[in-house]
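Hi support team,

I'm opening this ticket because the web form for multi-chain structure prediction keeps timing out on my end. I have pasted the exact lines I submitted so you can reproduce it. The total is 308 residues across two entries, so I didn't expect it to be a heavy job. Is there a limit I'm missing, or should I split the entries? Thanks in advance, R.K.
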Amino acid sequence: MKDNMEEREDYLKRHSPYQVNGEQWEAMQQRLKAGVLADRAQQAPPRSKRLMPRLAAGMASGIALILSIYVVQQQNGPHTATPARQLSPEQQLDKAISSLSDAELSWIHQLNEEELAEAGESSEN
Amino acid sequence: MAVNDIDEQIIQLCSREGDVDKGFDLLMKTYGRRLYQYIRRLVVGEQDAEDVLQDTLIDVFRAIDSFRGDSRLYTWLHTIATRQCLKFYRQKKLVLKGFDDEGQWLAQTLYAENSMKAETILLKFHEAILLLPEKQRLVFNMRYFDELSYEEISSITGSSVSSLKTNYHYAFERLKKQLSHEG
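Hello R.K., no limit was hit. The queue was backed up. Here is the completed structure from your submission:
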C-alpha cells in the first residue's frame, strides 16, 4: 500500500497535464523573444533618447553648411579676400591706385599732365 | 555562492550592454520550461500562461541590471513570475464575475483544455491543487514541484518560514485525503 502511494506520488510529480510539444514550445519562444526585443528597443536609455534629436539636428545643420560652402565654391571659386564685385567703382579705383609702385604713379601723373596740356591747347583753338 | 556560471552568463548577456538575442536563448534553454510550467500550474489556460510568461520576461529583461546576485537567479525569476501570476488573479477578479471563486474557475479551465489529453488521476490531482486557498496553492507549487527551500519561498512571498511550513502541511494533508478518496 505504501509502495503504491509512493509510486503514485512519483507519477504525479513527474507528469503534467500542461505539457507543450517541441514545435509549440519553439513557436512560443519566438513570439516571446519578439516581445522582449520590442520592449528592449522601446526601453532605450533616456539619455540617448534626449540626445538623438539634438545630435541629428546638429549633424543636419553641419551637412547643410558644408553643402552650401561647396555650392558657393563651385560657382565662385575658392574663397579669398572680399570679392571685387562687392566694392563700389571708387573703392575699386582706390584699391588699384594703392597697389601701384611709385614709378607707376609718377608715369600716370606725367600722362595726366600731357593730356591736360593737349586739352588746353585744343580748347584755345 | 548564489549565482553559478550559467547564471552569470545569462545576466551578462541579458544586460543592456549584452547580446539580448543570445541571452534570451540561454535563459529559455536553462529555465524556460520550468518557468512556463510554474506559471501554467497557477494560471492554467495555455494562452494566459503565455501572456503571463511574456510579462514576466519583459520584467526580467528590464530589471536584470539591478539583480545583485543575493539569491539564485531561478529564485529571482520565480519572484517576478509569482508577482505576475498574482497580478493575473487580480485582473481576472476585476473583469470576470465567475472569478470570485478562482479555484473553481481555474479547475474548469483545466478540464476545458484537457478534455481527452491527460489521465484522470493527473487531472484530479491538479484540480485539487487549484481548489486550495491561494496561499497554500502558491506554497505547494513552489515546494512540491519546483523544490524551492522554505527560505527561498519566504523571500519570494514575504511570508515567514513557519507560516509557509504550516500552509504546506495543510495543503499536503488536504491533497492526500482527496487522492485517497479518489483512489
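A quick check on our side: The first helix of chain B runs from residue 5 to 14. Let us know if the file doesn't open in your viewer.
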